[in-house]
Sequence to fold (264 residues):
Amino acid sequence: MNGLEAVGVSVEIERKQILDGVSFNAPSGELTALIGPNGAGKSTLLHTIAGASVGRVSGQVLFEGEDLLRMPRRRRAQRIALVEQEAHTELALSVQEAVSLGRIPHLGPFGTETEKDTDLVFQSIAAAGLSTSEFAGREIAGLSGGEKQRVLLAKALAQEPELLLLDEPTNHLDIAAQLSVLNLLRRLGDSKITSIAAIHDLGLAVAYADQVVVLFSGKVVASGPVESTITPDLIADVFRVRAQVLKDPDGNRKVFALSPLDQD
Ligand code: ADP
Ligand code: MG
Fold:
């Protein structure tokens, strides 16, 4: 099976079952949106796939047929990047230094950056939508939430992953920046990168993702192509809101109007 295949993934943290038999497929070179209400287990699932779970993990995660959960750390870091919601360890660094961290899994035994690594760092900063002349030397701690989020994305791009995992990559961004990041993720598919992104905004998920996995209380309640999977009934069941499908003037994708369930 191409891409990522999760089979019966369960995670227990402090004797609490957080993920319960999660199975889904994220096809190669496509953008898969992970949606579900707060606390559904989206972040836990992304951390688990990245090999960064703090819990007890069972089940299998195959990527291009290889078992990710049992893969040596360095090899995993060469193939998978995780964009977390917040910058933690990078705060004391400059943008260039933080993005350079993405190159570490690919450096030789002496850990020296070559010209190619440095070029990639600058290309990644630009690809994430930051001007290199303005931002490369800036300290992360002094950046806005949206700028920090772009630095984390740049670091992940510099890692040249085959699988890119993103935890709500657009939540600090203004609407134009959200669309540009999602466009970038779609374009990454052309270079065969498989992306899985937790996306809060249903409208954005429907507009940009190819596939969707819907999590609810640690279980997959639906998965498949966005168009056929995200339906008004599913939205009502999972998010407790009423959804009406509107006609998209371009005729390409569904557009939903959301309102409270008990309102006519
Ligand atoms: P989501 O990202 O969908 O909002 P999370 O994966 O963050 O959901 O959380 C799923 C559930 O797991 C929540 O009930 C949360 O409280 C719990 N959880 C997540 N991480 C931990 C942890 N380290 N310790 C205890 N409970 C956790
Ligand atoms: Mg989360």
Summary: The mean pLDDT is 91.
